[in-house]
Amino acid sequence: MRWIVPFVLALLMAAPAAAQGCSCQPQSVAELAPHLAVIFEGTVVGRPTQVPVTSAAAVNARNAYRFMVRRVWKGDVGPVFSVAYPVRDWANCGVELGEGQTLVVGANPYREPGLPMESDGCLIINMNPPGVDPVRSLGPPRLEHPQ
What we know:
By secondary structure, the chain is α+β, with helices and mostly antiparallel strands. It has one domain (31-144): CATH 2.40.50. The chain has five helices and six strands. Strands 1, 2, 3, 4, 5 and 6 form a six-stranded mixed β-sheet that branches. The chain is globular and about 40 Å long. The relative contact order is 0.23.
């Protein structure tokens, strides 16, 4: 019996630590807009492709998602636009993008020249807050692409 307590303590100490949760700072679309290079509404089309990483600056593995763009509020965004997005849950706050999903997307230039713009889970969460119409928050779009 005396060995049970030390055994249980050893098991508890050897157990893996809990994963860190998402630490997104809640921000409104209006607060984020001035800090983003592009803002558009689009639907994810096709399967993601892996973004080539060539430098140590790009820490997270990323996939490029193609969007069929409906409306544009900011930036040079054509009717089809690619955005790099983190692959790992801890980097994307558990927000997975799926084919057919329509979102308002905010993005900035990728850390490596020549690669797609990049976004992340915090931006997706804050640009698409539950119970709030982000399109309404942004006002009239600068450009609409016919579908």
